[in-house]
Write a structure and sequence with these properties.
alpha/beta; Metallo-beta-lactamase, Chain A; seven-stranded mixed β-sheet; five-stranded mixed β-sheet; binds zinc ion
Length: about 300
């Protein structure tokens, strides 16, 4: 366990944006411009269990918050100042306590770009690799005031209050998966975990190779979540999941990995693998938002040295 001191260097340069959104269908990829996007849904707050809440709507991924004895811990920051501000207004309707901590599940823009809409002075907590990615993306002077100031490598526990019978909020790191800085926020008392973008139930998982994500690591991390005493898993882009949902998700990824591993061993090319999985062989246009598919990511992991 490690807590770093405040480190808030100030630089200024261009602003980079990485966003993690559900994989668009092939047709939907065709250049949807911001002007044609529907406005975000209103922010809604749902009490999940006890003092744990989930926030949906606004721009960016689902978020959550925990009302502690003296302070509120928010999990992920939405994607814009405006949405962050709306979320904070809704949180204030639930509790008058101050938001003193923001935990980042990882570094994608739809989870962190709203940080600048938070009050100054809250601790921003992340895995140390997430701080590296956020630091690369947050280039304006204002943004750099909101870089994570508390980072860790393996785990970090946050006290829930003075009652010693209460457990702690556990921030757990199980290795590279969606990115190399994915944190699981685990509430052992309630048997609830927030898993950021480690889970995508209705589509293939997204692996950010540029952020050292790996599909084989994702399987390992999801199995570590299954080893937790947890009944409900919340995430950035899905409905609430059970362990059974995650088991099915893992099985689907492992099936693809096994099939592609066998194809690589028998000397098949990336095009062979794409064809076997009916993956669009059109190369992504420069500047296109097309993600490499899971199938391609697995193939590259098996055949390329990073
Ligand atoms: Zn993400």
């Amino acid at each position: 366990m490690k807590i770093l001191p405040f480190v808030r260097p100030i630089l200024s340069a261009a602003f980079l944006l990485t966003v993690c959104v559900p994989h668009p269908g092939k047709q939907a990829i065709a250049q949807q411009t911001p002007a044609t996007r529907p406005p975000p849904a209103p922010i809604t707050v749902e009490q999940v269990k006890g003092n744990i809440y989930q926030v949906k709507g606004g721009s960016g991924a689902n978020t959550g918050f925990f009302v502690g004895e003296k302070e509120i811990i928010v999990i992920d920051a939405k994607m814009s100042d405006e949405s962050a501000g709306q979320m904070l207004k809704e949180i204030a309707k639930v509790s008058p306590l101050p938001v003193r901590k923001v935990v980042l599940t990882h570094s994608d823009g739809d989870h962190v770009n709203g940080l600048t809409g938070f009050p100054a002075g809250a601790d921003i907590i992340s895995h140390e690799n997430t701080r590296v990615h956020v630091s690369a993306a947050f280039r304006t002077e204002t943004q750099r005031k909101f870089l994570p100031n508390v980072t860790f490598t393996d785990r970090l526990y946050i006290s829930r209050g003075s009652d010693s019978t209460m457990g702690r909020v556990q921030l757990l790191y199980f290795g590279p998966a969606h990115t190399d800085g994915d944190v699981v926020v685990y509430f052992p008392d309630e048997k609830i975990a927030f898993a950021g973008d480690l889970i995508f139930l209705s589509r293939d998982p997204l692996i950010h190779r540029a952020k050292n994500g790996t599909s084989f690591g994702l399987v390992k991390v999801l199995k570590a979540i299954l080893d937790l005493d947890v009944e409900m898993i919340l995430s950035g882009h899905n409905e609430k999941a059970t362990k059974e949902d995650i088991q099915k998700f893992v099985a689907g990824v492992e099936e693809k990995q096994a099939k592609i591993t066998a194809m690589v061993k028998s000397g098949k090319s990336l095009d062979d693998v794409r064809a076997a999985f009916s993956i669009d062989t059109q190369p992504a246009r420069p500047g296109s938002s097309r993600w490499p598919s899971l199938v391609e990511v697995i193939y590259l992991e098996l055949t390329q040295k990073k």
